[in-house]
């Protein structure tokens, strides 16, 4: 997965890159969401010596995105299911408490895996792949009113 963003801050060997927020951002939680909720930011290694204002491509392997999503969703879901199953043998209150407990434990496990295992493995951390040239898209001039009037007068 490759995203294009703007370097907003450089501090030492780290750079803060800001991206437009996409619907996939709801599930990832790797980036910090800006106050307005329209942008996401991530601090990564400035391997290309990018400067503030540079547009960069940032890449993270598809396999790793999928693995991270599975850890965040599947572990808590499985533990909730176990809590519901074990709790159903006891009482309704136990079922609810064990399900909530399973959810909390699942998120704690996912958090610890993310913090101490996933971020340490190569490929799970996003990396800068290139500094992009500023966009050179030109918009064709729109016809002026006088051009439109000239076309109408030539028809009649």
Describe the protein in words.
This protein has 156 residues and is α+β, with helices and mostly antiparallel strands. It has one domain (2-132). Helices cover 43% and strands 24% of the residues. The protein has four helices and six strands; from the N terminus they run E-E-H-E-E-E-H-H-E-H. It has helices at 25-28, 62-88, 92-116, 145-155; strands at 2-11, 14-20, 32-33, 39-45, 55-59, 127-132. The chain has a six-stranded antiparallel sheet, with no helix packed on it. Helix 2 runs antiparallel to helix 3 (92-116). The longest helix has 27 residues, at 62-88. The termini are far apart. Residues 136-156 have low confidence and may be disordered.
Number of strands: 6
Report the uncertain regions: 136-156
Helix content: 40-55%
Shape: elongated
Strand coverage percent? 15-25%
Q: Main sheet, how many strands, which sense, barrel?
A: 6 strands, antiparallel
Task: Write the H/E string, N to C.
Answer: EEHEEEHHEH
Counting copies of identical and different chains, the oligomeric state is: single chain
């Amino acid at each position: 997965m490759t995203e294009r963003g703007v370097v907003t801050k450089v501090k030492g060997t780290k750079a803060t890159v800001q991206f437009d927020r996409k619907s996939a951002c709801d599930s990832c939680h790797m980036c910090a969401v800006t106050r307005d909720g329209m942008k996401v930011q991530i601090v990564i290694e400035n391997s290309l010596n990018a400067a503030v204002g540079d547009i960069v491509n940032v890449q993270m392997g598809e396999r790793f995105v999928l693995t991270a999503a599975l850890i965040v969703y599947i572990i808590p879901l499985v533990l909730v299911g176990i809590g519901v199953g074990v709790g159903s043998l006891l009482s309704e209150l136990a079922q609810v408490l064990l399900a909530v407990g399973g959810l909390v434990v699942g998120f704690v496990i996912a958090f610890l895996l993310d913090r101490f295992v996933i971020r340490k493995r190569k490929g799970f951390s996003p990396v800068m792949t290139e500094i992009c040239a500023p966009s050179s898209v030109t918009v064709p001039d729109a016809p002026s009113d006088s051009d439109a009037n000239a076309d109408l007068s030539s028809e009649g």
